[in-house]
Design brief:
Layout: H1 18-35, E1 37-38, H2 42-50, E2 54-56, E3 59-61, H3 64-73, E4 78-80, E5 91-93, E6 108-110, E7 117-119, H4 124-134, E8 141-142, H5 155-163, E9 171-172, H6 178-191
Parallel strand pairs: 8-9
Antiparallel strand pairs: 1-3, 2-3, 4-5, 6-7
Length: about 190
């Protein structure tokens, strides 16, 4: 029997050395502190300012201590649970772990009936979600593309609505603004039973 025996499982990608990673991290801190970024959401700028950021119009600069404090508070690992309570479908996020799902912003799609390339449509979302649900090597569901047959402002909502009833795996969803975030939240609450 061995003591302190460690088994490495999962996929590992080590493209940079620890020194290179540290240099990259300090470069990011420098850019955030001295160049900053544009934040177009007024409430977000206020929250960042209250937290210690420097705000000048849309420009927000984040002092390095603020970024380091936020990173120190973030958990090193966490679990995204499946929707149906099946622990085999849970995703454990943390160092040395990789998870796979469909890519999110493909414009075109190969029609499963005609084998022709065409724009991704809202009717494709449930098909992809069902396929994701059936494949053991796919860990989460995400819309494969950006739906083209609804107004852009409604796309994220239609994508989420198409995925939710068709998979029990964790769903990765995004929104474009607070309105579709609210719609997505309402759908999730309704599907969860209120």
């Amino acid at each position: 029997m061995r003591a302190n025996y460690k088994v490495n499982s999962g996929v590992r990608f080590n493209m940079l050395s620890n020194d290179q990673l540290e240099e990259l991290f300090h470069g990011v801190l420098h850019v955030l502190e001295y160049t900053g970024l544009e934040v177009h959401h007024e409430e977000a700028r206020e929250i960042l300012k209250e937290g210690g950021a420097w705000v000048d119009g849309l420009r927000v600069r984040l002092p390095s201590y603020m970024v380091k404090e936020a990173l120190a508070k973030a958990p090193r690992s966490f679990t995204v649970f499946s929707r149906d309570g099946d622990p085999k479908k849970d995703i454990h996020i943390g160092p040395g772990r990789a998870h796979f799902g469909p890519g999110p912003t493909c414009v075109n799609f190969i029609d499963i009936d005609t084998q022709e390339r065409r724009m991704y449509q809202k009717s494709d979302v449930p098909i992809v979600a069902k396929m994701v649900d059936a494949l053991d090597n796919i860990d989460f569901c995400e819309s494969l593309g950006t739906v083209s047959d609804v107004h852009h402002d409604l796309g994220a909502t239609y994508e989420f609505a198409g995925m939710f009833p068709n998979t029990s795996k964790p769903i990765v969803a995004w929104s474009y603004d607070k309105y579709d975030s609210a719609d997505i939240h309402k759908i999730a609450v309704a599907e969860a039973g209120g």
